[in-house]
């Protein structure tokens, strides 16, 4: 069985600006990853050590896109649909991506002051992914 390679290429953003406030993305993504692997522990076995790296990598992008959507510079649904196509082509279960977006919304609601609009965008993107 071929093991999943760690992320390469374009690195994920490490921060984003929400209403003039800098939001650190990696700590949020790490909390989301913890919750994700509690929900889907088999993904660690399926994807090996690279699984957590990819989870944090993709989640940082999703968080950045959600914040960018609230700020009016990115369309999260469009980006999430693109990521869903990429992951689907790699036989990644899209329900896992949708759950990841919902977990992200929960974490943003809990940890980002003024993040409710971002959380709403993430929940909407989950619905977009499920529509694929």
Q: What descriptive keywords fit this protein?
A:
132 residues; mainly alpha; 2 strands
The order of strands across the largest sheet is 1-2
What does the main sheet amount to? 2 strands, antiparallel
What are the segments in which pLDDT stays under 50 over at least 5 consecutive residues?
none
Number of discrete domains:
1
Mean pLDDT: 94
Shape category:
globular
Q: In a nutshell, what does this entry contain?
A:
This protein is mainly alpha-helical. It is built from six helices and two strands, in the order ββαααααα.
Task: Tell me what the structure shows.
The protein is mainly alpha-helical. The chain has one domain. The protein contains 6 helices and 2 strands; from the N terminus they run E-E-H-H-H-H-H-H. It has helices at 25-39, 42-47, 50-70, 76-89, 94-111, 116-130, and strands at 15-18, 21-24. Strands 1-2 form a two-stranded antiparallel sheet. A hairpin with a 2-residue loop joins strand 1 (15-18) and strand 2 (21-24). Helix 1 packs across helix 5 (94-111) and helix 4 (76-89) packs across helix 6 (116-130). The longest helix is centred in the middle third of the chain and has 21 residues, at 50-70. It is globular. The N and C termini lie far apart (28 Å). The model has no long low-confidence stretch (mean pLDDT 94).
């Amino acid at each position: 069985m071929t093991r999943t390679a760690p992320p390469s290429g374009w690195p994920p953003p490490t921060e984003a600006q929400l209403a003039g406030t800098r939001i650190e993305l990696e700590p949020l993504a790490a909390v989301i990853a913890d919750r994700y692997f509690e929900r889907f522990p088999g993904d660690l076995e399926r994807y090996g050590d690279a699984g957590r790296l990819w989870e944090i990598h993709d989640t940082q992008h999703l968080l950045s896109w959600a914040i960018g959507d609230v700020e009016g510079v990115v369309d999260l649904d469009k980006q999430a649909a693109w990521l869903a196509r990429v992951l689907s082509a790699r036989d990644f279960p899209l329900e896992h991506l949708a759950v990841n977006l919902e977990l992200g919304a929960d974490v943003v609601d809990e940890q980002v002051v003024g993040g409710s609009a971002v959380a709403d965008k993430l929940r909407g993107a989950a619905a977009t992914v499920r529509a694929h």
